[in-house]
Design goal:
heterotetramer; A: alpha/beta; Rossmann fold; Hypothetical Protein Tm841, Chain: A,domain 3; 2 domains; 6-stranded mixed β-sheet; 8 helices; B: 219 residues; mainly alpha; Serine Threonine Protein Phosphatase 5, Tetratricopeptide repeat; 70% helix; binds adenosine-5'-diphosphate; binds magnesium ion
């Protein structure tokens, strides 16, 4: 393991401190319990709080700011944060209109946020993101994982909350965006959790993990490495099949295409992926009218990428386009 | 039961977790995200760190403190589940305590009381995680152990044979996870690929049970 | 080599096409010769053109847009573009006030841009960036390399050009920013040029390359891997020594700190590096008032990072803060 | 000289470059950025691709076209340098041509004319790159070869001994770069670390010279 770290026990705090120092105009870092809040507390709006294990930067701290989150609770690397963090964060950012938690669908995250919500002295609601169509959904499992589509949910809900919309409306939009979003990821290499000191999984120079999770969880299957277009074509098919299974028409649909890097894949390759993905979706009658390409939901130093398609409607489009001012996403302001 | 014993048990658990780094880590790497050992270690160390403080409390309160501490230190899936266990067990034991607690004094609990507390803890895990036996989780160890424990305790078994049986039951539970498809937790995404791998949470629960039983049998 | 590519001969075009498609609101791609221009041609201003080998994305194409570049000429991976690209780009974006070329100081880039400038039918000037203090400057060599500091030069000059300033003024600001900027990079791993198919250099699991170039060129020395703070401390010393040697006072100076990832280093580590770097510079009396952390000048899939310090004055600060709207840098708009 | 010969030489150069992939690539990987082989291959292939078109031009015009083509295909440091070489050589030869060109006809050049053209090409590289001998670049091959060539040609040497000598001189030039510190080009940043490595541009120039000389000697 070769990383810019001093001691595995200090990685998180040193990184959070660097983040807070680099964006001192935007955020305030609170330690013990750890959470990050907007520099300028919003007034009279639903407070949006997200959180999850560290290692997915800029998710979630990078999305704190006007038009997106009010606070984020970072756990240890790839480990859900704990209820005390969420409770303190909620207390700090609550602005009279209740708390909306945005939680990626992992047993740990869901249970920790659930316990926090139960203990919370304010009204709250929770949007659980579950855009990863690599995991075939089933009533027998705890369902699909929340991956890069979470960024779109956070952006849109954050925008709506800024208009003064109430808790139910924010939750409804979050659920809608989540249901209209599907993602699938591919890993070329494993990530290495600092505390583990070695790669999470072994993978051959000629293999890829199709459907990998953002913690390096195994995906649909181990496959032979192929040319980019063949891999991407399978990703596009998985997404189209998912929407079909869930009775969403995709033809003639306007959509947002997010090509997300997992941390070690260069932008040059992400744009190449975008090129093929957009072409294939267009061939299926989908009109890509919004795009995002870059490292938005990472898995430490994993080489790989994910494709996310969000089916737009006027409401989602409006909230995607609205001004946002965060460390990891900024426009119109 | 004395709080002293709870602290000794927590230290025995800590030692057992630390001694099984490779096992726990590689199990979670195979079908999870590789952090289960780190999570358990963080929790075990946190309890050891507050041992002195715990000594001031009645056993049930100490168990509740342990639950709260685990809740704010472990994180992940195992954090709220184990926390729920200890908090629920604490609640059940507290309901069986009828005298004012005097520091360092023994609180009388029957084996059946403790078994009921353990079972209540397991029930809390079931409620929190919405899982049950056969889903390739820690419950594949905890549910059979709880059932055995309640059964043997109500049959007025001696402590040693109870411990021996529970340790065996826990080991069988661990092995039973090997051939299962996971339907809860992180491994649920794996489908068939989870087969052949032991569930890390089941293994750590078995380690904890063994550590406490061994301590009891040595006493 | 495990990359998202189809064929090494098509990487560049497919990636450029993806870039242009993802940012169709901002840029237009021209092929054969290859160059990228702003979607909306600026009028009556100095046209700013940069370029260089591909593989450093978002540099330079990601900096095309209002407040920054008018055009970029991408060469093959790590290879200078050719004069025909620059000539066609200049013809396309010339807006009556001459052309300013911004060129990173590599023999190839300098000579190709020089030949283009000689053939150009318009007035032109060239700013050569040379912020890399890993290469100890000397009258005997062709000097320091242009690395991540180039982004700061492009941002400031682009801002000034937008005000209608003339060619001489733009060149002067570019030269000033360049002279007030120093960078140094560290590699943990090599990059792999697609056409080469194997790592540019071999490096041990316990070694780092101190002073590496953005093409994987060897640096000052091969060193033992150490904790992050020890490595960063050497980087900070190199930068302070460089300013001292060039007679720039750094104490009490206001500065911009850029922590740049080379492509495979996660944001989590970059923020950890920021944390230490900012602390060390502060200990030396430098006031970090502007920050940028992320992948801004990459070296394909190299793991590593560079530290860039730019000594601010009111003029530079004004042009750094002014609105910019590019794929790779955006604020105030 | 016939344009036919220039085309044949270009193809011989192409073959030699392609045959030395490993050598050129590893030399540039050691003290450069690893792309020198790819650059040279791109240039050599581009010239081979326009061979038919070149056949329509007088030798000096064909050389100039080669220069322009290299300028727009190679890129990097070697692109403008080699382009400058051919454009300058073309100019010098053109100034020595006094008859209207007839397609496929031989244009009379003395060995001294060609040596002067070669020397002018090398001079153009010196001017463009502001380097000179001893800086660990292609000039460590090209300058000695140009000097020898001019000397032998003005001494009215036969073509074969000229070629033999130039090939030897080029090889010595390559070897001479090994012990130098680079002060121009990408390797200039390396200081002492460049010592022990041969300059890639010097090697590819030697290969090109050897390819053309071999062709001449076979003719
Ligand atoms: N819903 C659930 N019910 C019971 N146990 C669960 C559940 N989800 C996960 N687990 C247990 O948690 C263990 C994983 O814990 P850990 O690795 O610490 O957390 P995470 O999965 O968040 O990384 C699994 O091996 C499994 O035994
Ligand atoms: N200023 C110069 N004068 C002469 N030759 C040079 C000069 N700079 C570089 N070279 C030559 O160019 C070669 C490198 O070419 P190449 O790898 O194609 O380009 P780049 O260095 O841009 O990657 C060096 O080996 C050297 O021989
Ligand atoms: Mg985890
Ligand atoms: Mg885990
Ligand atoms: Mg090059
Ligand atoms: Mg090179």
């Amino acid at each position: 393991m070769k990383k810019f770290i001093n001691h595995i026990d200090h990685v998180l705090i040193e990184s959070l401190s660097g983040f807070a120092a680099a964006h001192a105009d935007l955020v305030t870092l609170h330690l013990d319990p750890n959470f990050i809040t907007r520099k300028n507390k919003a007034v009279n709006k639903v407070a949006i709080i997200s959180g999850g294990g560290a290692g997915h930067e800029p998710l979630h701290s990078g999305y704190i700011g006007f038009g997106m989150l009010d606070a984020a609770c970072p756990g240890h690397v790839f480990t859900s944060p704990t209820p005390d963090q969420m409770l303190m964060a909620a207390e700090t950012v609550h602005a009279g209109q209740g708390i909306l938690f945005i939680v990626k669908n992992y047993a740990g995250d869901v249970m920790n946020f659930e316990m926090a919500a139960e203990m919370l002295p304010f009204e709250s609601a929770t949007v659980i993101t579950s855009d990863d169509c690599a995991v075939i959904n089933s009533t027998y499992t705890n369902g699909r994982r929340g991956v890069a589509g979470t960024v779109i949910v956070e952006k849109c809900v954050g925008s709506l909350a800024e208009t003064g919309a109430n808790l139910a409306a924010c939750k409804a939009l979050g659920d809608k965006v989540n249901s209209r979003t599907a993602s699938i990821g591919v890993a070329l290499t494993s990530c290495t959790v600092p505390a583990a000191g070695r790669p999470t999984f072994d993978i051959d120079a000629l293999e890829i993990e199709m459907g990998v999770g953002i913690h390096g969880e195994p995906g649909r299957r181990r496959e032979a490495m192929r040319e980019a277009d063949a891999i991407i074509s399978d990703c596009v098919d998985a997404i189209l099949t998912d929407f079909k299974t869930r009775n969403f028409a995709t033809s003639q649909q306007e959509a947002l295409l997010l090509i997300n890097g997992f941390g070690a894949t260069p932008l040059m390759e992400l744009y190449l992926i975008y090129n093929t993905t957009a072409r294939l979706f267009k061939q299926h009658g989908i009109q890509i009218s919004r795009s995002l390409v870059g490292n938005y939901t990472t898995a430490l130093d994993m080489a790989g990428a994910s494709v996310t398609l969000c089916l737009l409607d006027d409401e989602i489009k409006q909230h995607w386009d609205s001004p946002v001012h965060c460390a990891g996403l900024r426009w119109g302001i | 039961m004395k709080t002293e014993f709870i602290i000794a048990a927590a230290k025995a658990i800590q030692q057992s977790i630390l001694a099984n780094e490779n096992t726990l880590e590689s199990l979670d790497r195979a079908i999870g995200d590789g952090d289960h050992y780190i999570n358990m270690k963080r929790g075990a160390n946190a309890i050891a760190d507050i041992a002195e403080e715990l000594a001031n409390f009645a056993p049930s309160d100490a168990l509740n403190k342990i639950g709260l501490k685990l809740l704010s230190t472990i994180g992940g899936a195992s954090g709220p589940l184990l926390a729920s266990f200890f908090m629920a067990m604490a609640k059940t034991l507290a309901s069986q305590t009828h005298k004012e607690y005097v520091l360092n004094e023994n609180v009388e609990y029957s084996a059946a009381d403790i078994a009921a507390g353990f079972a209540a803890g397991v029930q809390a895990i079931i409620q929190r995680g919405k899982a049950n036996i056969g889903e390739k989780t820690m419950l594949d160890v905890l549910i059979p152990v709880a059932n055995q424990f309640v059964l043997l305790a109500t049959q007025n078994c001696e402590i040693n044979p109870i411990c021996t049986t529970l340790m065996q039951t826990a080991e069988q539970g661990v092995i039973s996870t090997k051939d299962l498809i996971a339907t809860k937790g992180r491994a649920a995404g794996l489908g068939e690929r989870a087969i052949g791998h032991i569930d890390p949470g089941a293994k750590s629960c078995q380690l904890m049970i063994a550590a406490v039983c061994t301590l009891l049998m040595e006493a």
